[in-house]
Amino acid sequence: MKVAIFTDTYLPQVNGVSQTIKRMTQYYRTKNIPYIIISPECFVDEAQPSNVSFLSVPLLIYPECRITFPNMFRLNRILHAFKPTLIQCMTEFNLGLCGLWYAKKYNIPSVSNYSTNFDQYLNYYHLKSMNGPLWSYLRWFHNQHALTLCPSNVTKQYLLDNGVQDISIFTRGVDLKQFSPTFRDSNLRKELGISDKIALLYVGRLAPEKNLDVLRQSFEALLQQFKERIVLIVTGDGPLMNEMVATFPKETIFTGYKTGADLSKLYASCDLFVFPSQTETLGNVVLEANASGLPVVGVNAGGVANLITNQLNGYLAKPNDIESFTNCVKKLITNDVLRFSMSMQGVEFAKRQDWTQILDELVTLQYQVSKNVLA
């Protein structure tokens, strides 16, 4: 099997798709599976010599994805030389379309990937009227492929309800070498001024679709009761950064964008994770938080509901319900034993999300598609 991966987002941008491709290609190398990555120009990674990149500009509502302007002559020449036996389209935009076009033109089996609920994003950007046309396109795009991959059962049902066929689960794992309670750092807590406080952590894009107004109002309510005991740490960047700095309580610490060891230490050095987003197809940050020893307060919507077992490794609040979210966080603030118990349960849950097994199953599916023997 030789895999051509088409993606509209890639490293060094850190998001679910780019991290998944990184994992996939690491696995391919261990199994001697040849691959090539077709990606936007600004995401060239020098550590990945298999990259082929093209001029691109950011997508308006989701800059991590790019509108790319590929040179089709160059693309054809490169792919003809590589001779892929499988086309893997990780995104649905320009480069995903290029992958589909090439697969159809040269009769090469193809697999698509669904990892972002763009239709739900539109609601937060006052573009709800675009939902119908968007789903018409997404339904068409994914049904052109032999198989569509998605990360959770909730998302699979959502796709089925919207007319997408032939779906398999490709869930995500977590790197236990990068995310672990062992990275807890008392010096970092001192630097942040949180040594004697319970630190609530949010990690993610600072954007409307993450429902961060619920986080703000919940934190304001919690401060009325626990003002001297709690702090909120917000890690990430995005279009709402300036607004959040201006409107969130002064007990909020904005760290900006963090990766690598800095992110590992930050996770492990906090005490619980707060994540009000309703639009996730999975919620990789929930896995990272659990692996780092943090119980999670999320909402009972989207893929997050597949990761949190209520009252075991966290709490599932009612979607868009400030009181419910606040009460869930309050239980963890006021009960150290409960917080520790959920922390340990979260670590155990994360340990079961084994990347090797997940990728074994993925490659089995890809191989079956490439040989036209999909069960």
Describe the protein in words.
The protein is α/β, with parallel strands linked by helices and 375 residues long. The chain is built from 15 helices and 15 strands. Strands 3-2-1-6-7-8-9 form a 7-stranded parallel β-sheet, sandwiched between helices. The chain has a 6-stranded parallel β-sheet with strand order 12-11-10-13-14-15, sandwiched between helices. α3 links the parallel β6 (86-89) and β7. α11 (284-291) crosses α14 (336-351). The chain is globular. The two termini are 18 Å apart. Mean pLDDT is 92; it is low at 43-47.
| Broad shape | globular
SSE class = alpha/beta
Strand content: 15-25%
Mean pLDDT: 92
- Biggest β-sheet: strands ordered side by side in the sheet: 3-2-1-6-7-8-9
User: What is the count of helical runs?
Assistant: 15
Distance between the termini: 18 Å
CATH class of the largest domain: Alpha Beta
Number of DSSP-assigned strands: 15
**CATH fold annotation of the largest domain:** Rossmann fold
Which CATH architecture of the largest domain is right? 3-Layer(aba) Sandwich
Evaluate the radius of gyration: 21 Å
What string gives the helices and strands in order? EHEEEEHEHEHHEHEHEHEHEHEHEHEHHH
Low-confidence stretches: 43-47
- Please give the largest β-sheet: 7 strands, parallel
Indicate how many domains the architecture comprises: 2
CATH superfamily placement of the largest domain: Glycogen Phosphorylase B
User: What share of the residues lie within helices?
Assistant: 40-55%
